[in-house]
């Protein structure tokens, strides 16, 4: 019996230590955000690219006591900087928002300011920055556009030649159509490149910090339940063995 009680107490203390570790050391800032203190860096995200075409993607994870308050503040900051919300996913519990994943498109020249705002609205638990240099692709697309513009001008000039036959003119008109179609595709590609470079993507994940009892209580109940099941099986078997032993001794 003493060994069983000792086992239960050991499990209880181990789970207590685990729960305390999982909860972490909570810190509350002036805005009410609660999270793990990581000593996160506020170094600029945007580097001196020397006229390179750089695409920035920033992922940030936060802990905040009031998720809605943080998203409202970040939405307002995004609009103030000329950005916009690309996508929002939220989870609610009892009418209270407990989780939000918001994707923002922020003007690249304002990216550092927005990231600083995000980091100031909660306890930062994770931050990653991805960059992609698309300069070569952009230059190739621009050069192709210029070549197509020149080709279209040449064909249009040739079309005015009075010595051309009707068949020649039909062929030239068809070729002009092909060039214009390719021009549209190239212009769309360049427009997409411009949007990627001029507007950076910032994905912000905000969640309520998990409280001590939310972790500890379910685990402790599981331990108690397991101990109860063990007792229900072990003690009847032990009692039966004692009765059988006693009966053998009496005979």
Instruction: Give a count of the beta strands, DSSP E runs of length 2 or more.
Output: 7
Strand order of the largest sheet: 4-5-7-3-6
Mean pLDDT: 79
Along the chain, the helix and strand elements come as HEEEHEEHEHHEH
- Structural class based on helices, strands and sheet pairing: alpha+beta
Low-confidence stretches: 1-10, 12-40, 212-217
With helices defined by DSSP (H or I, 4 residues minimum), what is the helix count?
6
Radius of gyration equals 34 Å
Q: What is the helix fraction of residues, given as a range?
A: 55-70%
Main sheet: strands, sense, barrel: 5 strands, mixed
State the separation between the terminal residues, measured CA to CA: 29 Å
The global form is: elongated
Strand content: 15-25%
Descriptive labels:
disordered N terminus; five-stranded mixed β-sheet; two-stranded antiparallel ribbon; single chain; 251 residues; alpha+beta
Descriptive notes:
- The protein has 251 residues and is of the alpha+beta class.
- 57% of the residues lie in helices and 23% in strands.
- It has six helices and seven strands, in the order αβββαββαβααβα.
- It has helices at 2-23, 67-80, 111-119, 135-159, 166-198, 212-250, and strands at 26-28, 34-36, 54-63, 84-93, 96-107, 123-133, 199-207.
- The strands form two sheets. A five-stranded mixed beta sheet has the order 4-5-7-3-6.
- α1 runs antiparallel to α6 (212-250) and α4 (135-159) runs antiparallel to α5.
- It is elongated.
- The relative contact order is 0.18.
- Mean pLDDT is 79; it is low at 1-10, 12-40 and 212-217.
């Amino acid at each position: 019996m003493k060994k069983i009680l000792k086992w239960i107490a050991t499990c209880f203390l181990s789970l207590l230590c685990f729960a305390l570790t999982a909860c972490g050391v909570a810190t509350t800032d002036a805005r009410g955000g609660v999270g793990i203190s990581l000593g996160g860096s506020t170094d600029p995200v945007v580097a001196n690219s020397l006229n390179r075409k750089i695409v920035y993607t920033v992922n940030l994870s936060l802990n905040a006591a009031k998720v809605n308050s943080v998203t409202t503040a970040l939405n307002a900051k995004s609009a103030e900087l000329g950005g916009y919300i690309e996508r929002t996913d939220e989870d609610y519990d009892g009418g209270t928002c407990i989780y939000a994943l918001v994707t923002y498109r922020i003007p690249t020249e304002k990216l550092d300011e927005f990231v600083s705002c995000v980091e100031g609205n909660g306890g930062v638990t994770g931050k990653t920055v991805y960059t992609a240099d698309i300069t070569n692709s952009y230059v190739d697309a621009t050069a192709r556009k210029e070549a197509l513009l020149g080709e279209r001008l040449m064909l249009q000039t040739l079309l005015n030649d009075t010595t051309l036959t009707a068949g020649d003119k039909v062929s030239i008109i068809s070729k002009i159509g092909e060039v214009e179609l390719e021009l549209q595709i190239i212009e769309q590609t360049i427009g997409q490149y411009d949007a990627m470079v001029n507007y950076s993507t910032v994905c912000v994940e905000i969640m309520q910090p998990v409280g001590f009892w939310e972790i500890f209580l379910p685990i402790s109940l599981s331990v108690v339940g397991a101990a109860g099941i063990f007792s229900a099986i072990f003690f009847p078997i032990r009692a039966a063995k004692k009765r059988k032993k006693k009966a053998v001794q009496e005979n």
